[in-house]
Design brief:
The chain is an alpha+beta fold. It has one domain. It has 6 helices and 15 strands. β7 and β8 form a beta hairpin. The protein is globular and about 55 Å long.
Length: 245
């Protein structure tokens, strides 16, 4: 039975790819396709932006996503809402349980202050990258720019708050093999960057590589866990379905 299930999953694979350590990636997921991200080495941080692939002015809205679902983090059963009240993606599987939504992404100044300077003309492909510049390079391919960078998701990272209200990164949160799968509820432009988390206090520049698999998926059923998680999530699905009606 397990072998048959494995064969079925393999048959649904559209393509496989890899987000290199310090690398960037973008792709338009077709509606209902599923993107699975797997932390290959452990300790990954993947900063992510999401846009309506057919209407790029519509994008992931962090405040609405959090307040509508009474949460400060993402995991299975949660929905990524757009700034027009529609469902962009749903998290259908997650072996980790917590993905940061609050802390933004690293810039060149942060990387230099934390790890020192290693530029391309000196180190070629071993130069130190940052998420902000990676986002700009990938967004440029789609006619977008710095004005389109909004609060992002940081997959595989957990942030805790101590008794004094100070936020800190939970080290070694993600282990090798941890994964998260997102189902596109519309055609979704996904932009990814593998870069240090902005709260990472380590002194060694060591971003991690992440495996990417895109699979064919199915529309959310009437009883889908993401759809039914909150009344606000149900409305977001309904808004998306009207958009495609």
């Amino acid at each position: 039975m397990r072998a048959e299930k494995s064969k079925g999953a393999a048959a649904r694979v559209v393509f496989e790819d890899e987000l290199p350590a310090g690398g960037k990636w973008s792709h338009v997921l077709k509606r209902h396709q599923v993107l699975c991200l797997t932390d290959v080495e452990g300790g990954a941080n993947v900063s992510a932006l999401f846009f309506n692939g057919d209407l790029l002015s519509e994008r992931y809205n962090m405040p609405d996503t959090l307040k509508a679902q009474y949460t400060a983090f993402l995991t299975a059963g949660r929905v990524l809402l757009s700034d027009r009240g529609r469902a962009l993606c749903s998290i259908v599987e997650d072996t980790l349980g917590w993905h940061d939504t609050l802390c933004g992404h690293c810039h060149a100044a942060f990387v230099e202050s934390r790890y020192g300077s290693r530029r391309y003309h000196e180190a070629r492909n071993e130069y130190y990258r940052n998420a902000h510049d990676a986002f700009l390079m990938e967004l440029g391919k789609w006619g977008l720019g710095k004005q389109d960078i909004v609060p992002n998701v940081n997959f595989f990272s957990k942030v805790a708050v101590d008794d004094e209200g100070v936020m800190r990164l939970v080290r070694s949160h993600s282990k090798p093999g941890h994964s998260v799968s997102l189902r596109a509820e519309m055609n979704v432009l996904v932009v990814l960057a593998s870069s240090p988390h902005p709260l990472d206090l380590g002194r060694t520049y060591a971003p991690k590589r992440v495996s990417l698999i895109v699979r064919r998926g199915e529309p959310a059923a009437a009883t889908d866990a993401c759809r039914m998680s909150r009344p606000e999530a149900t409305r977001a699905f309904e808004n998306t379905e009207r958009y495609f009606a």
